[in-house]
Design brief:
Layout (H helix, E strand, L loop, with lengths): L6 E12 L7 E12 L3 E6 L5 H9 L6 E6 L2 E2 L5 H4 L3 E4 L13 H9 L12 H12 L18 H14 L4 E5 L7 H18 L2 E5 L3 H6 L3 E6 L2 E7 H5 L3 H12 L6 H5 L1
Parallel strand pairs: 3-8, 3-9, 6-7, 7-8
Antiparallel strand pairs: 1-2, 1-4, 4-5, 9-10
Helix pairs in contact: 3-5, 5-6
The structure holds adenosine-5'-triphosphate.
Adenosine-5'-triphosphate binds next to strand 2 and helix 1.
Subcellular location: Cell membrane
InterPro entries: AAA+_ATPase, ABC_transporter-like_ATP-bd, ABC_transporter-like_CS, ABC_transporter_ATP-bind, P-loop_NTPase
Organism: Desulfamplus magnetovallimortis
Length: 270
Amino acid sequence: MPDKNIVMIQLKNINKTFNPETPSEKQVIKDICLDVKKGDFITVIGSNGAGKSTLFNLISGNIMPSSGKILLGGEDVTKQPEYKRASRIGRIFQDPLAGTASNMTIEDNMMITFKKGFKWPLISLNRKMKNLFKEEIRQLDMELEKRMQENVSSLSGGQRQALTLLMTVLSNPDILLLDEHTAALDPRNAAIVMELTRKFIQEKHLTTLMVTHNMTHAIEFGNRLVMMDGGEIIIDIREEEKAKLTVKRLIEMFGEIRKKEFENDEVLLA
Ligand SMILES: Nc1ncnc2c1ncn2[C@@H]1O[C@H](COP(=O)(O)OP(=O)(O)OP(=O)(O)O)[C@@H](O)[C@H]1O
């Protein structure tokens, strides 16, 4: 079990303003403070434009904050470029094509993950590694172990996203960022990938933040739920309180705090 007292991510008074001092200046993150403990699985929900993806971009170093500090595992990475944090952060996007190389085989895609962080060029796969990859991919229960020499382009969106998830988990990241990673899949495949997500996070005790537009998923998964609105964290619910939460109550809470109705058809209809 992870030591829950270790703080994996600390966001200290983070602000982000796009196009400062121009007519299109826009503050999209407003004084956000967030401590994420080792092993936390936080679901992140919010209306369109609330700042969820921007928050992930800030954590991964894809963009820099206008002010504030970001600490990963206690280290101040506020000014560290994305490529330097990359080996510690696993991020999965909505697009199932984004996480794997289409014109390479399943085996070679897995090899890249295996070699992540190493500087020497790819060496040819030996039998031991091939068997190791087969064992790992068997966990997906999609019979992909029989297709190791096929190009990834021949896989369905669901299979490809499951492979991306497995590869990301195998790279053993300190932090897993799931950015609506099942939103582009049909309901059946989305459910399969969500169950695999739950299994891997539980087994590996991965510290995870998951953006979703699906309120039921936000409530059902993880030990903590954060709701963003207008660049701020307005709701932060944990453990037992989260276990008792309902979609109706969450929408009521939004209304009580913001004195307006929650507007996001994608979320409400999910
Ligand atoms: N590079 C940028 N330049 C200017 N504005 C930006 C930029 N990136 C994001 N924004 C704006 O910041 C706000 C927050 O966007 P963000 O993508 O973080 O929202 P989100 O909560 O992920 O929304 P959605 O649920 O619709 O994906 C939006 O108003 C968006 O238009």
